[in-house]
Amino acid sequence: MRGLIAGLLLLAALSLAACGEESSAPPGADDGPVRLRVWVHSGQPGERAVIRDQVARFNAAEPGVQVELTVIPEGGYNAQVQAAALAGDLPDVLEFDGPFLYSYAWQGHLRPLDGLLPAAVRDDLLPSLAAQGSWNGRLYAVGAFDSGLGLWGRKSLLEAVGARLPAGPDAAWSATEFAQLLERLAERDSDGAVLDLKLNYTGEWFTYAFSPVLQSAGADLVTRAPPLRAGGVLDSGEAVAALRRVQDWIRAGRVDPNLDDAAFTGGRVALSWAGHWEYPRYRKAVGDDLVLLPLPDFGAGSRTGQGSWNWAITTRCDRPEAAARFLGFLLQPDEVLAMTAANGAVPGTRRAVARSPLYGPAGPLRLFVAQLGENAVPRPRTPAYPVITSAFQKAFQDIRNGLDVEEALRRAAALIDQDIQDNRGYRAVE
Amino acid sequence: MPRPLTDQTPAAWSMAAPAVAGLALFVGLPFLVAFGLAFTSARLGSPLPVEFLGWEQFRRILADPAFLRALANNGLFAMVVVPLQTVLALGLALLLNQPLRGLPLFRTLFFMPVVFPMSLVAVVWVLLYAPGGTGPVNAFLGWLSFGAWSPRDFLHDPAWALPAIMLTSIWQGVGFQMVILLAGLQAIPAERYEAAAIDGAGGWGQFLHVTLPGLRNTLIFVVVVTSILAFRLFDQVRIMTQGGPGEASATVIYAAVRAAFERQQVARGAAMTVVFFLIVLAVTLLQRRLLRQER
């Protein structure tokens, strides 16, 4: 029965997914270089250029290994990975957004890295990344950078309305103060839209950027300790109240729809709720007028997102030691710094952070490092994450469109809990 | 009716074989797979064993207001778009059937959207529907109404999201039906019009008694094909509204794709497609009964 179903699923996948290229048989020792198929998300143009350079440098330095890069848009990245896994067509090395790790590891697609990566490389990782990359006591993924989420602002516009600029996460604006500030800024704005929430993005952004709002109000996406549950957490009174505030900003016309992704760089808004990856672009657009501030405090302290794209070796890879050498190469301080210079992210290793001009004690992005300690909440570390994020994204879209917040969150919680039940609590399958 | 000299059935089958094999492999087989999966607990990539659940998935989706809304949206979309697009295509075809100067240019212009991929068209229309007074559609309506129109955010407004998608779909698809109807128009012999004119029929009379009967089979073909295309609505929804606001523009195919590939709930997605297939099949059969083609 199982074999039949698996066969049927495979047929379905083959008829749905475009057939990938046939993988060649594993090359012998004297059979030319080892081919490593690597999937990477397309990211910002700067990031793309760096990863291409890195692959070229690695291929030149390691004549025995040939990395072949496939760039995939991040909008439906998880769907692509699932389809490829089903068709037996996963690459050797897979990049993916952090919180999807537990689902992939639970499904048996990833190799533990504990025996593959040298201890020196593993110990160099930031604690937040080591935690994100581990599941069930094993390390499955390593990241070259951690992420930062905050409010980018134009200092001159904020000072013009007498706004106080919080020095750190502890001094963050309260949600009420923030709403008043938006009104004051709007009085001097031509269209009244003064805040950019990156509504032009799709997919994972909405969970990454707005689940901190829940946590800042004392709510969350799901329980963090067993039993795993969304009901009573995601649709709690605190969660509803916090997201109602966000909905109020949108309803009042304070949020720019940002169809062209130029709301901040084009000077239409004073504040942009965005990640570290905007630093290079924003810096170029507004220069010294750029200021980085913590997200508003919805009652239980300012909270922010963390975790980012990271690298893993799939179970389909037949030369894991070569793949591990590629990961080790990406985690060298120089390579980490090259990538973070392009995307403004927090360097993912201790050695690289110590040398980073952006994140040093006087660096412009030190807030991101300060936040990683106390204020950053990892997204739920559970195989249920794909469903959690899908349900929350839908709920956020509905809230953005003016539907009842309580109704939207209750539906999302019910969907998540049904799925947890269907998967028997997502217990590890050994 | 003279009987054929030899039995040509084997020859016919051998010529049909490639198409039949393709249909069986890429339409028949996946449908059978979906039908089988709909009765299980299958999840994409799950290490848990697959169980037989009987009608459970069907019971769940039919009790899900979101799915029922998606079904209703599909029905509404087809009921509005099919007649509107057919009438519009006929109007354009009649216009282009006149001896005009620069006719090839107009024909190309009207047909051009069909050549663009739907995803491209959808992205362009997202920009056209931009909210605020500077959005092209809002600006145009403002100009048309001498400023009485208050700008709307079409794609995020429950009342406007589906109509906005309808407009985009009609704009993109009407050229295709137009070309087919144009071919049909040019196949009507000119003598019939002359005879009708001699009998004293005016322009409207000629249209009613010569053009429409002459176009009967072409129109039936256009209606059936447009209906099937209307039920397949997916790209525009995915790109322009993601099914929102709420479920205002969700469609069954979009809901199924979301369940199967975003949440790995393959069985649920399969159940949705099975229910949908049966409904579309019923509609198509009904159309065939009502609209018998003349031989």
From TrEMBL, chain A:
Gene3D superfamilies: Periplasmic binding protein-like II. Keywords: Signal, Transport. One of its GO terms (cellular component) is ATP-binding cassette (ABC) transporter complex, substrate-binding subunit-containing. Residues 1-17 form the signal peptide. GO terms for molecular function: maltose binding. GO terms for biological process: maltodextrin transmembrane transport; maltose transport. CDD domains: PBP2_TMBP_like. InterPro entries: SBP (IPR006059). Belongs to the bacterial solute-binding protein 1 family. This is Carbohydrate ABC transporter substrate-binding protein (CUT1 family). It comes from Thioalbus denitrificans.
